[in-house]
Amino acid sequence: MNRFAQAGAVLAIAALAATGANAQAKKYGSEAGWDIFISDAMGPGCLIAKKLSPDVQLEMGIDATGGQLIGYMALYTKADANVTQGQQLPVTFDVDGQPFTGTATAQQMPGFRGGSVPVNNIDFIYNLAKKHKLTITPEGRKPIVVSLDGTDAAFKSLRACQEAQKH
């Protein structure tokens, strides 16, 4: 099994607004069902977000703080996720049948709970654009299956957003 995330730093994702979007983020655009945001708290960095249901949102993005681009994935729910702030939780990601492991750091925000996983290989995030299905399985919890339809267009906008932050 591949080691999904080895970055030592944990990304701090700001509280989600009532719409599910990052509260400290400015909307950059939308592509193929994904919203693209700029987050000044991440360097600035850019992220794509998609509501999987009215109560669940997935985010994938780039943290540009510290001068080095680091990717991350985050999953949030309005339901009781049975996690405490800062709790470390092993998680498996299956990308079109290829498993990766990582450690999510739990986050609790007003109305939402979930966690984020830093990714030390930025290309892993960008390469999801060509994939079809992502299955996220936090240890001891049910798997969450995410269609990656539309990620190619969304990641093109994410790259453009991130490139625009350099200027």
Shape: globular
- What is the mean predicted local confidence, pLDDT? 81
Give the termini distance in whole angstroms: 39 Å
CATH class reads: Mainly Beta
Radius of gyration: 14 Å
Give the percentage of residues in beta strands.
over 45%
| H/E element sequence | EEEEEEEEEHEEH
Total helices: the number is 2
Poorly predicted sequence stretches spanning 5 or more consecutive residues: 1-22
The total beta strand count reads 11
Specify the biggest β-sheet. 11 strands, mixed
Structural class: mainly beta
Q: CATH homologous superfamily name?
A: Invasion associated locus B (IalB) protein
Architecture overview:
It is a single chain. The protein has 167 residues and is mainly beta. The protein has one domain (2-164): Invasion associated locus B (IalB) protein (Immunoglobulin-like), CATH 2.60.40.1880. It is built from 2 helices and 11 strands. Strands 1, 2, 3, 4, 5, 6, 7, 8, 9, 10 and 11 form an 11-stranded mixed beta sheet that branches. The chain starts with a strand and ends with a helix. The relative contact order is 0.22.
